[in-house]
Amino acid sequence: MPPLNAIRTFEAVARHQHLGHAADELNVTHSAVSQQLKHLEEWFEQELFSRVKGRLILNSAGSQLLDGYSRALNLMHDTTDLLQRRVPGEHLDLHCDPAFFSKVMMPLDDVARAATSGVTLDVKTTAINRAAFPDTADIVIDHSQHDEWRNVTREHLLDVHGFPACAPSLLEKFDRPKRPIDLRRLPLLHGADRDSWNSWLVEFSGSSSAGCANTFYDDFAMTIDAAVRGRGAILADPVLCQHELETGKLVPLFDHTIHEVSYYAICTNIKYSTRAVRQAFDNIVKMLRDHDADIRAAQKGKKPTQRPWDTHGAVNQ
What we know:
Elements: H1 4-16, H2 19-26, H3 30-44, E1 49-52, E2 55-58, H4 60-84, E3 91-96, H5 98-105, E4 120-124, E5 139-142, E6 152-166, E7 188-190, H6 196-205, E8 214-216, H7 220-228, E9 234-236, H8 242-246, E10 251-252, E11 258-268, H9 269-272, H10 275-300
Parallel strand pairs: 3-4, 3-5, 7-8
Antiparallel strand pairs: 1-2, 5-11, 6-9, 6-10, 6-11
Helix pairs in contact: 1-2, 1-3, 1-4, 2-3
């Protein structure tokens, strides 16, 4: 077998197609990465990459290695993580999109009870943007299904459909929009999904968000808070903005909805094979799907003007 360090380096470079990014991930120098690649190519007695304008592109030989090496490294990481637990099943690490946990999961009473009795649930709400499943996580909940993650169990939780809304205080400063195009006169607040406002305006006004007074936040919970404070209009939804809509802190401006994001629960296959993780994963999936069904059922009998969140993304007239 080739040296393990050379295999790890090859896999990182193949993913990033960049020596520097791979070096940062592995916490080594650029020259160390180059040296490991050289060792591996010497071991196979052939090149594994094509050098194109400063980028490293896998050639046919390198492509044959990548799939198997990636699966092997993922399995090694997962197995090591399981054995490093001080007591198997002692605690579970849940990594969750910050806004989703604070606005959806936190108000539910069943989150902690979703785990097996006697298991501590350790929640981390840092933004998830990784090329591979986080090493320290047992379960991930995010607004991306992360197709690049391999050997994982993935379950769709719910869809988020947004419509324009704002705080009553904002309408004291600006005239209430009568047509979708009038929204361009308002300050627009964006979340992590930076293109939703542009997509909504293109579809329903024939314009875009370019040139508007745009403010972007990397956490949608901050976007909601800014909207409640009257800082601008938001694409609200009954999932993340349920409390603000029910209490009148945010009022709908139009019934037109677009699909913004979908949320997923993800777990590596090897961790899902353990009883504690599997039970927590299945319970969380059921809890959130039931919660979504309750929201939609509560709105089913209301008039269209009171129900801007059409779960199929249709326009209510």
